[in-house]
Amino acid sequence: EDANARKRARAFFETGCSVDHYDSCTQLARSRTWGLGGPAAFDAAAAFLGPHCEHGDAIQCVRRGHVAERRGDWVTARKDFLKACDGHEGWGFRAAGYTWGRGLGGPQSCVEQLRLVRLGCELGDESACWTVVGMLDSGIAGVANATDARFQAEKLCRKSPDDCSPLAFLIRKSDPPRAVKLVGDACTRATKD
Fold this sequence. Notes:
This protein is 76% helix and 0% strand. The protein has 193 residues and is mainly α. The protein has eleven helices and no strands.
């Protein structure tokens, strides 16, 4: 049934996009990028996303970067992710950081990855924030900074109490009772929902 629902959704998005409904075109590009409800159609997805990216729609630059990524064209993916950074899109900084951390589409530098994901975090991309916490805690960028990692995790936990597990992990040895309480509180909230 899930496959049929995706096919119907894709047909719905095709109809909306045929009359230039922006959100429908965005969802159609997504379904074409990931092969949802039909075969992947990278050229068609890129054709929609390209003009929007070139005219400053940073989110569409990230999406176009993911199309290039799915094609295996990491040079273009990195370029599009960095273009999203120009538009101050946190998701773009995180995606660009990923390419730098793994040397995809250009040089590899965990220091540059950390710089980019920090900027993504500052712009509100929560996944980028957790990447920063992990990188600082593990010293991946050559800078192990447990104090900064904990500070970042504390800040995020205050913002979103349901996302305190990384903080619990960081303090598991230094403050076991609090770590257990954070995890317990999250479990209690989850069972109430």
